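Ticket #4471: structure output looks truncated?

Reporter: J.K.
Steps to reproduce: submitted the chain below (292 residues) through the standard prediction queue, then opened the result file.
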Amino acid sequence: MAKKTGKKTFQHIAVLSRSRAGEPMELAKQIAAFLSESKLKASASYMHEESLRQQLQAGNFDLVVALGGDGTMLRAGHFCAPLGIPLLGINQGHFGFLIELEENEWRGVLPRLATGDFRYEERMLIHVEHWRDGKKQDEWEALNEALVGRGSLARPVHLAAILDGRPLTTYVADGLIIASATGSTAYALAAGGPILPPQMRNMVLVPVAPHLSMDRAIVVDEGSNIRVELKRGEDAVLSVDGQQSIEVKLGDWVDLRASQYSLRFLRFQEPGYFYQRLLSIMDNNPSAEMVD
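Returned output as attached by the reporter:
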């Protein structure tokens, strides 16, 4: 059993669907009704509705339950973290690295929300800034990772990595992933990076297809500041948590550090669940074809 938090109930729970209608929204309505029967006020909403964002910012909800896969959890996490709203995931996708409950489990587990029989798990985000000519162009909070790399041209880029103001190395590669512990099981893992315990506040640098340059992942200390500067290459891009790419020009740089925000996942399982779930997913990869 998860350790009780001492918080006995929630004032208003938002149950989010990734679509306006169809099966996801029907399930969101079922869960909201079920929670209401358990004397927990809950509402079903489409997660991209502007009115929902306004209600979250106004403090009208104190828990978000998101239905979907890890992509849905990333999107929900982006607006929950800055507001300090905890997040619970119910799987309606393929993968579930960030998910707590499977679709067939929620009826037996959600009543524990009313008794405080759960715990919180803090996950660090990465603050990402894009700079050009000494001016900040934009900034983001990444739950998984930032990627600086080549665009459509099949040529490696030269990326200078600077750690806490000191040159670290120059990567000649398709790209460089800077991932949080949460992101260590995402793109960074696919590129050969290590798996970090989810509550670590470290970042990991993982080159993608390096050519005659550093080809090992580097885990940097908590509190480190990383700068990645484009030294050579055309058509380079920056992508944060797999979102739409931003053009990076020669001489641009990207600054990365631990965010001031953390994302609180609501968990019913004990901490050791992480490795059990990870190995279960990797052994039963739903996107891999089985070969006899």
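Triage note (M.O.): checked the attachment and the full token line is present. Residues 13-118+268-283 form a domain with the Rossmann fold fold (CATH 3.40.50.10330).
Status: closed, working as intended.
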